[in-house]
Specification:
The chain is an alpha/beta fold. It has one domain: Rossmann fold. Helix content is 33%, strand content 21%. The chain has 8 helices and 7 strands; from the N terminus they run ααααβαβαββαβαββ. α7 packs across α8. The longest helix has 14 residues.
Length: 210
């Protein structure tokens, strides 16, 4: 698969990842923003309930990998977290910066990351969240070893991604990663405790790893 942008929500079409990436990049940025920020998304994504699975995040430092428009980033900041909104796409980082200035939010900062590296310092954050982006990472075992290194000993990683067996908007089934595969890969990366929630979201699973 070709490398593709770590953005919050992507509809993959076509016969291969390259075709999907080309299709996505032909979309106007304004249309992508409209899709990601669609008010009706709260019904399926349930962001506040997802974030609540971290527990009390006031004062916690959290990296949002593939932050996109900051859909989760600003909600976590509103709950008192210090959020690093991370993405590989300058357009989305610029969008978040503009949104941050308009909202006068001092709890959100941006960071341009690499396809192969989240650019986290050792034990830099309390938690990491990655929504609708896990399946885009190429060498996930190596990537999430770096993520693990960046989380402090009491912290956790939350993965929210598409259920493989449920037909829904999102990537084709062949690109989706089953929960057991996520756990297997994250174990190699150094995580050894897992909580799986298949009930909160109809079309997505949630894996919390420590």
């Amino acid at each position: 698969m070709k490398k593709i942008s770590l953005i919050l929500l992507v509809i993959l079409l076509g016969s291969c990842a390259g075709d999907s990436n080309s299709f996505m990049n032909r979309n106007k940025f304004e249309n992508l923003v409209k899709r990601f920020e669609d008010p009706t998304r709260t019904k399926s994504q349930k962001p506040d309930e997802v974030i609540a699975l971290f527990g009390d995040i006031a004062g916690k430092k959290i990296m949002d990998i593939g932050a996109g428009t900051g859909y989760f980033s600003f909600r976590m900041a509103d709950k008192g977290a210090k959020v690093i909104a991370a993405d590989v796409d300058d357009r989305f980082l610029d969008y978040i910066e503009e949104k941050r200035l308009k909202s006068n939010s001092n709890n959100v900062s941006t960071r341009k990351v690499e396809y192969e590296d989240p650019l986290l310092k050792k034990e830099e954050v309390d938690h990491v969240i990655i929504v609708n982006t896990y399946h885009h990472i190429e060498d996930r075992e190596a990537y999430f070893t770096k993520v693990k290194n960046g989380i402090n000993r009491e912290g956790s990683l939350m993965v929210v991604d598409f259920k493989k067996e449920v037909k829904s908007p999102g990537p084709p089934k062949r690109y989706r990663v089953a929960v057991d595969k996520v756990k297997e890969e994250l174990m190699v990366a150094g995580f050894d405790e897992f909580e799986v929630n298949n009930d909160l979201l109809e079309t997505q699973y949630i894996v919390i790893a420590r």
